[in-house]
Amino acid sequence: MTVSNNTLKIRNVHFNFEGIKKHWVFNSSVATNFVNSMHIVFPEGEKFFVRSVRKYSKQLKDEQLKKDVIAFCGQEGIHAREHQNFWEIMKAQDLDPQVYAKFLKTTAFSGKYSIENTLIKFGDFFQKGLGDKMTLSLTTALEHYTAIMANALFHEPFANTDNIEPRMLELLHWHASEEIEHKAVCFDVLKEVDGNYYVRVSGMVLASIMLWSYIGMGQLYFIAKDKDKSIIKMPFEIYMLIEKVVFGEIGKNLSKHLLDYFKRDFHPNQINDQYLVDNFFKDKTYA
Ligand SMILES: [Fe+2]
Ligand SMILES: [Fe+2]
To answer: Are 15 and 170 in contact (CB under 8 A)?
Structure first.
């Protein structure tokens, strides 16, 4: 069992999003709505993570891990709240985020026929309790994604206040820091509950399909809703996003660390990035 070597802290941070302009990433509808989609996917996903891991919190033998699960749930709860607070700004911009949130809940999380509930029923059909293990495996894989996306964000040269609205960049960096901070919690819970390699990696296959599909569908939905997009600028904006995200530092960093997950002896703490968290929090009053 790998025990977390840092103490997790719940930081009750409140962001003020008043007056954030509509295209707050690169002055681009395509780039902004890519991240806007994450403002919906993250909170709903984080509520799912908490539901999945809490089912096991009482039965854990490792006392430190039990405390880490409580802190993990606290951190994710505040992430979800702050991203969801940004929906007010998106509503005022006529982007109707609640419509996409409802679609996401119905089809992916918590809805009667959602992927979450179908996975539980499907797993339990083969073996009692396998359904909950599979949702934990999906959570663990998505947590690996959030941690490596966080790492990539810190290494991406374009992620600076010239290109991204400063308050939004701080929100993203704060969230990224806590994702790196708690990256091993769900992994360690899954390891204690079921150390089977195939249970772990099957979660990653589903996580990869779900994450990019729902972010992509959300992006298309918000671009369609965006009355201020420029059709003329759009091909250039699409090219820029693909160049930056897929072929830039983010893409290179993500693909490298994604493959790490498939190593049999992988553990999230093998990626040494706690220094990114320490650097970010060193001058923050809320650290
Ligand atoms: Fe989070
Ligand atoms: Fe997380």
So the answer is: yes
Q: Which ligand is located closest to the Cα atom of residue 181?
A: 2
Q: Please count the structural domains in the chain.
A: 1
Within-domain flag for 21:
no
Residue 121 lies in a domain: yes
Which tokens hold the place of 197? 């390699």
Distance between Cα 47 and ligand 1 center (Å): 9
Instruction: Please tell me the distance between residue 282's alpha carbon and the centre of ligand 1 in angstroms.
Output: 20
The Cα 226–Cα 9 span in angstroms is 38
Domain extent, residue 94, equals 29-281
pLDDT exceeds cutoff 90 at 249 = no
Q: Taking all residues of the chain, what is their mean pLDDT, rounded to a whole number?
A: 95
**CATH code at 226?**
1.10.620
- pLDDT, one tens digit per residue, over 99-121 is 999 999 999 999 999 999 999 99
Neighbours of ion ligand 1 (CB under 5 A): 46, 76, 79
Which residues on adjacent β-strands are paired with residue 164?
A: 25
